Structure formats: structure tokens, C-alpha cells
Automatic annotation (TrEMBL):
Keyword Cell inner membrane: no
Superkingdom to which the source organism belongs: Bacteria
Protein location: Cell membrane; Membrane
Species this protein is from: Chitinivibrio alkaliphilus ACht1
Annotated TM spans: 29-49, 56-77, 83-101, 113-132, 169-188, 200-231, 243-263, 269-289
GO biological process annotation, one example: response to zinc ion
Family, as annotated: Belongs to the ABC-3 integral membrane protein family.
Name assigned to this protein: ABC-type Mn2+/Zn2+ transport system, permease component
Assigned keywords, A-Z: Membrane, Transmembrane, Transmembrane helix, Transport
UniProt main location, coarse: membrane
Membrane topology according to the record: Multi-pass membrane protein
GO CC annotation terms, alphabetical: ATP-binding cassette (ABC) transporter complex
Amino acid sequence: MEFFFDFIRHTIQQLVQQGLLPESLKYSFVINALLAALMSGPILGFIGTTVVSKRMAFFSSAIGNATLTGIAIGILLGEPVQAPYISLFSFAVLFAILLNFLRHRTNMSNDTLIGVFLAASLAIGSTLVLAITRDINLHTLDEFLFGNILTLTTVDLTLLFFTSLATLAAGIFGFNYIMLSGLNPSLAHVRKVPVKTVNYLFVVFIALITVASVKVIGAVLVQALLVIPAASAANVSKSLKGFTFYSTLFATISAAAGILIPAEMELNIPSGGAIIIAATIIFIATFYIKLLKKF
């Protein structure tokens, strides 16, 4: 994959020299960040439509916070501080499976159960982080919490590429099953849709794409890119097809703008914050469009 990404970087830099692309793209780290944003943005926007439809916005937030615990465990076990991916992915997936398991086995509402897991993951994560601060600089964790385009490597891009590809394939082929099992489980059972299996696969892929995106968007903010573009799309779409299209489009625009605008204006702000600010501006714009249509 290194040859593949080197080829893309070299091609983009040639286009910059010809004056066809923004000047900031002459730097490899900006290209890396843009590639990561263009891989994670559309996927999060696409998956976000099902997250919002299934009313699981808090679930993705809990997964985002659980990554903090996974990072701390990885560092304690001796994984590299910059890339504790084995513990990170393992803990997030186990967290998602356990949460989904209890959803099916208890009568508690989703909000209550997710709230318990959200609080527990924050408590465990913050406790473990304090334990590792003796060995590492606490600011090292900032890149996982808020995103940092300076630290993206070819390994990060490769991981994000394959995770995005797998999530996209699962989303496309299982979209109807996911939506039906979320909106009307009874009808899904009648049509012999394996609802529980679909739900388990759905939460696992949310966990995977959330973890793969933390370095560019940040664990704290990745949940916002699942929800805000979908909420913006709901303001302007009239069909499920339009809802999915606009959510994907808005997330892609937000991710690209959040990387390129700060780089062009030389603003020293976290990539995750810039991406979510761009998504919020789009939400406000679509909200006013919705209001204007009523008059």
C-alpha cells in the first residue's frame, strides 16, 4: 500500500506545481490528512443515516469514549504509544458486542443502558490514563481525542482504507436489512431477516470505523460526524435515497473543508474540531433552508 499512497501523493504534488490544486497540498502530511478525511468522511456520513434512523447516536458516542480505555490498555501492555491498534480495536469491538448483548437481554431502554456504558467507559479510561501518565506525555493522547493530521502515517491510511472498504461493502449489501431491522423489527422477523445477527454486525462495523477514524477526527468528535451530516440531510431530503445521498455528501464536504481550510489559512486548530465546525455550519444552513420552505 505504501507504493499506492506514494503514487497519489506524487500525483497531487505535481498538480500543485501546475497550479491546479491548492498550495497547501504540496505538503505530504496535508495530503495524508485529506486522504484520511476523504475515506472516513463519506463512510461516516453513509453509516450515520442508519445510526440516526436506529436512534443510536449515543451508542457511537460511547464507542468513541471507549477508545480512550483501549488506548490506555494498549500502552500498559507495551504497544507503541502512537499506534496501540491491537488493544484499541479489540476493546472497542468487545465493548460494542457486550453493549449490544445486554440490549437484547434486558428490558432497559437503549438510552439508559448506553448511558451506563458511557459513564463506565469514561471512568475506566480516565483512571487508566492517569496510570500511564508516569510513562508518557499526556499531550500524546490529544491526537486521539481531538485528531492530529501531523501524525498520520501510511500505516494509519492503510488501516483506514481497508476498514472503510469493509464497512462500505457491509453497508451497501446490508443497508435494507439494517434499516428494516431498526425501523420495524417485527416486520423484519416476518420477512426472515436475522435481526440479532444484523444488529451485531452493525455495531461491530460502527466500532471499527470509529476507531479507524480517531486519528483524523478524534475520539471525542467522531460521533458528531456520524450524526450531524445525517441531521442536515434530514432537513433537505424527501426520500430515503436523498437522505443517504445528502448525508454522505455533507460528511464528505465537511471532512475536506475541515482539512483544507485550516491548512490554507495556516490556522493552528485540531483537524477534528475544524471538521465538526464545518459540519455544524452545513447543519445551520440546511435548517434555514427547511424553515424557508415552510413560508
